Amino acid sequence: MSRAHEVRTLLRGALRPPENDSAFLLDVHRRAVSTERMARYDDSHAVDLVIVGAGAGGGTLAQRLARRGWKVVVLESGPFWDPDEDWVSDEAGSHRLYWTDERITGGEDPVELGKNNSGHGVGGSMVHYAGYCPRFHPSDFEVRTRDGVGEDWPISYWELKRHYERLELELPVSGDYWPWGDPHRYPHTPHPIAGGAEAAVGGAEKLGIMMKVGPVGITNGSFGNRPHCIYRGFCLQGCKVNAKASPLVTHIPDAIAHGAEIRADCMVTAVELDDASGRVTGVRYIHDGSERMQWADAVAVAGYSIETPRLLLNSTSKRFPHGLANQNDQVGRCVMVQGAPHVAARFPEEARMYKMPPPEISSEQFYETDPARGFVRGFAIQTVGPLPIEHAQHVLGHGHWGQALRAYMRDYNHWYTLGVLCELLPLPENRVTVSSEVKDQNGIPVARMDYSQCENDRKNIAFAKQTLKDIYEAGGAQDTLITDRYAHLVGGCRMGSDPERSVVDSDHRAWEVPNLFLADGSVMPTQGSANPAITIMALASRLAERLDLKRLDGRSASSRRFPGRRRTAPSPPRDPRPLRAGSRTDGS
Amino acid sequence: MPAYDFRRAEHLPNLRPEGRPPSPEELPRQRNGVTPQMHGRYPDYNVLDEADHWDPVTRRMVFERVEKPPPIRFFTGAEAATVQVFCDLVLAQDREPKIPVLNMVDAKLFAGELDGFRYADMPDDRETWRRLPRGLDAAARQHGCPNFVDASEEVQRKVIDALAHGELHGEVWDELPPSRTWKVVTRAILSAFYSHPWAWNEIGFGGPAYPRGYARFGLGQRESWEGAPAFERDPVKDTQG
């Protein structure tokens, strides 16, 4: 652990994160991010970088590069959320947080998309993620070398470590001392846990399984103008409190203050290529029903594991008739999800699992390969707190309908739920393609995702489910309900050291296009058993550093410091803290 | 005499002979507010009493669900009649008061508010819903009944159970995989039913929680305003139909 990081974590959140004032730029009394002083770039002039997607990858990349003086425009297909007005404390009413345009899901073990794993709007899927922010383990980066499966990354854990540490201060992450992977501390102390989680801890202890509290991207103490968590349990419906981290509150405000433009409601339909030079020139997008073109010296696509491959595959040209950067037929391949079954358990006392953030405790004791288990790689154990609709789906999935469904649901308050994240292996035949028949409302072919498990995947999931059941039985559960499901999405355009087996190099640059970068979870060659959000952010943070060090040719020679002309010329505030009464709550 | 001791789990179908659920008539009747069919596991708890503690955006939306059930615009009259019987059986809504699930599902389909994916071997969700009533009729005919609506409840239940287990064949079901159809339609049905505050009353769910939040998390604990489970049947109210 670096010395500076050690000092910071000992001070436990009493210091503000370096070079990111987002938490201090938010208003105390309103949740919306102010865009009054946001730069507006004329799209006919080339900016330094256009980013497609304002989620974990795009939001972080924009903030980092805006800080370094780059002229950045982020095009986001969804809205610029105002949590006060747009979000509700309600399960069914949160439908619009998800990517609900048509997609096709196939293969032997098809994956539910939409609500389960796909975001929409500024902040991306992190707006409705649970909040878990574990790092990857060092082993995740060398799975082929260690276990003979999957793929090695072209970079190691140690190249991301600094970025993890920085992001843990920016989100900020709260949790127990973390003994697994590369052991580390978190800047905020762990949150309290509910009775149901206590019962799970007790059951796990009897089996010799250690559970830890966190790590979650939820403030626990003073952090700029972000309030403390109120433990209302609606993390998956968008945090109306602003306590849970998402790029909307952790990186977008600082990006805007440093001259980035976040242009919402802009659906990018194609990356444009100059066939003569082989460089990309910008992106086409649809805003308010009309097509526009944003010129840029470089393009970073951060649309996540389905929309990123879809955009590349739909961007055809003479040079790339089968999709941009797809000469080797690698775009869309090795898309991954984690096996994420839930096991709900019934206790004599009421547990009321709708309270508290769903992420409470977790264990990575089964994360690494153990030959005795009969499969390679492993899984993590985490809490989940399904609200009534989701719990009802689990009950019905067990064949209980009619009076049996109602009887189980009347018993909702006695149930508590644990989940696992099983590392499923990257398989080339699991891939995103574009449909030849189905088009969206803009006439653009929709994505199709095919997914099938391999034998190792099935063994891993079965073992993990049994482990959860054992924990609950040791903890005194009277009945259990097990539900098979998936969580998260990564891969699809992986990074690598061999152009024949990857889409981008270790600097996220497309092998075949010198000024095209991918800045999201699609570049991940493996997924570990960790929730991917903070790793996607860490990768974007590292990419920003690589781009700015000019080790890369991302910016053409003509693009210097200020190539784009602004419609308005904002002056980013000298003191980024808003001069309002609320600034006295500043934690520094 | 309490109908059950809820600390024990003997009312749960998994722990009962042949998985049969107990009759909800053994529960008290709801005494405050409404639950579907007035079954009262938390008979004195009405989540709508708490509406003053909700943010205005959420409050508007939840009250609209209760006060303005949308008209039927997606389904035809005949389709609606069949789907109504199906929804009522899936949710055991055998008498009033009923949550208007059919109307809520219809509104989503009419507005084209879909879930962001469809299975490769399935049509668009709207088309699945159109074919469902035809498929239910086809399955009822295989039992010698003219159609699903006019079949006996026993036949209707057999058809639904076969759908849930992916065991329907012939006509519509040769092109529409029954187990996926079950997934698609129940996703919408459950989403409608358990988004309604009457269902929250029945299960003792706290409902919208912003900006108040929660403070008591231990096993067996509840907030001062949350409903207590009750086993006692009220000698007057619980004996009235």
Describe the structure.
By secondary structure, chain A is α/β, with parallel strands linked by helices. Chain A has a single domain, classed as FAD/NAD(P)-binding domain (3-Layer(bba) Sandwich). Helices cover 23% and strands 18% of the residues of chain A. Chain A is built from 14 helices and 20 strands. Chain A has helices spanning 3-10, 22-25, 56-67, 83-86, 143-147, 157-170, 195-206, 247-250, 252-257, 304-314, 388-397, 403-410, 455-474, 533-548, and strands at 40-41, 47-52, 72-75, 104-106, 212-213, 261-263, 267-274, 279-287, 290-301, 336-339, 342-346, 361-363, 379-384, 415-422, 431-439, 445-450, 480-483, 486-490, 516-518, 566-568. The longest helix of chain A has 20 residues, at 455-474. The radius of gyration of chain A is 23 Å and the shape is globular. The two termini of chain A are 24 Å apart. The model of chain A is unreliable at 554-588 (pLDDT under 50). Chain B is an all-alpha fold and 241 residues long. Chain B has one domain (1-241). The two termini of chain B are 19 Å apart. The model of chain B has no long low-confidence stretch (mean pLDDT 93). Chains A and B meet through α4, β4, α7, α11 and α12 of A and α1, β1, α5, α6 and α7 of B. β4 of chain A pairs parallel with β1 of chain B.
Quickly count the domains of chain B. Answer: 1
| Structural class label of chain A | alpha/beta
Mean residue pLDDT of chain B? 93
The appropriate CATH architecture of chain A is 3-Layer(bba) Sandwich
Which segments of chain A are poorly predicted (pLDDT under 50) over 5 or more consecutive residues?
554-588
Tell me the number of strands of chain A: 20
Instruction: Report the total helices of chain B.
Output: 7
Largest sheet of chain B: none
Mean pLDDT of chain A: 91
Taken together, the total number of domains of chain A comes to 1
Distance between the termini of chain A: 24 Å
* End-to-end CA span of chain B: 19 Å
| β-sheet strand percentage of chain B | under 5%
Biggest sheet architecture of chain A: 7 strands, mixed
Summarize the largest interface: chains and residue counts: A-B, 77 and 73 residues
Query: How many extended strands of chain B?
Result: 1
Global geometry of chain A: globular
**What proportion of the residues of chain A form beta strands (DSSP E)?**
15-25%
Shape assignment of chain B: globular
* SS content category of chain B: mainly alpha
